[in-house]
Amino acid sequence: MNRFKPPILVAAVGAGLLMMSQMPVSAQQSSLLTDGQVIKIKSHCSEVQATLSRVHANDALLRVNRGQIYELISSKLMARLNSRIALNSLDSSAFIDVSTDYERHMKDFRSAYQRYEVSLSDAMEIDCTEDPVKFYEQLSDARQKRTEVFASTQTIADDVKDYKKVFDEFAKSYQGESQ
Amino acid sequence: MNEVHEEDERSYLISRNRFVILIIGTTLVSLGLVIVAMALYASSGAAQVDLSRPGYKEVRSQTREEDPSFDGFSASGPIDEEALAKFEKLFEERTKSVVETKVFNSDVLSDEALRINAN
Fold it and tell me: For A83-120, what is each residue's pLDDT tens digit?
């Protein structure tokens, strides 16, 4: 029996250490928040949740409206011009390159918004009076993801400007040839 | 002998309760299909643009209506000065908001905006 004591002891200590490493280090994480902030979150919880709910709804509206514009630009303008240029046996490769980037960045926008919306919804589901630290962490995550959505919209705006540049060069060279 | 007896008993139970088994079976299949549909709904991104969800009631009426008279640029026809001028006009009109207006850039989720800042 004595032969098994040390290995059992070692195993028990190891298991204990492993369990402790998995426990949330709330003391460490709450250092991101001051005591004052924790109190504010707890006392203003319902107001904060109401604000998040409004932001959630307004951002959804923004997503839908902006998404419609992006789709319209892609399907009713870019794709059609590309097709018309190709049908006239002219070089549309530059247009296609920018259009391809635009489509890819539209997908990135949709994905980025999806991740942001899920993160914000998760924050809204946390009871901030009971767990203000977890709430704040989730809110910080949603904040970061919203920044990523903004970045994706800026990339799409750059693609639109690039497409316009390509068009201007094409129009210039067409006018030069036709004169 | 016992196995044959058990087999017979099982067959008897099944034939006796066919209707109940049918109901349970169809319910389970329906539940499974609903779970698959909901998983697709969530993962495809449709949930994010579905303004019929309860939390979006206030903003439902504010969606941008697509202009029915707008046909876009025609995909067929010659490439001439008139066509290029028309495209340029349409493109500038429709991309103005995309280029000039920044969205999702405000600090609506900041500590200050939510009034949970340290000060």
Answer: 999 999 999 999 999 999 999 999 999 999 999 999 99
Task: Answer yes or no: are the C-beta atoms of A102 and A74 closer than 8 Å.
Answer: yes
Residue with tokens 């919880």: A45
Whether chain A has a CB inside 8 Å of the CB on B74: the answer is yes
Which long-range CB contacts under 8 A does B6-14 form with residues at least 24 apart? none
Mean pLDDT of B11-23: 89
Q: Which residues contact A159 (CB under 8 A, 6 or more apart)?
A: A98, A101, A102, A105
Rg (CA), chain B: 30
Decide if A31 touches B, using CB distance below 8 A: no
Cα–Cα nearest to A41, from A117, A140, A130: A130
Mean pLDDT (whole number) for A153-171: 97
- Predicted-complex ipTM score: 0.77
Q: Which two structure tokens, joined as six digits, stand for A32? A: 């991101």
8 Å CB contact of A84 and B73: yes
Cα–Cα dist A56/B108, whole Å = 10
Query: Is the minimum CB–CB distance between B55 and chain A shorter than 8 Å?
Result: yes
Q: What is the pLDDT of residue A3?
A: 58
The dihedral over CA atoms of B1, B7, B13, B16, expressed in degrees to the nearest 10, equals -100
Q: What is the C-alpha separation between B67 and A95, in angstroms, rounded?
A: 26
Question: Which residue of chain A is at minimal alpha-carbon distance from B109?
Answer: A143
* Cα gap A86→B113, rounded to integer Å: 51
From the list B62, B74, B90, the residue facing A61 with the nearest CB is B62
Q: Distance between CA atoms of A150 and A62, rounded to whole angstroms?
A: 12
Rounded distance, CA B53 to CA A143, Å?
23
Q: Cα-Cα-Cα-Cα dihedral of A128, A132, A137, A138, to 10°?
A: -10
Contact list in B for residue A52 (CB cut-off 8 A) is 109, 114
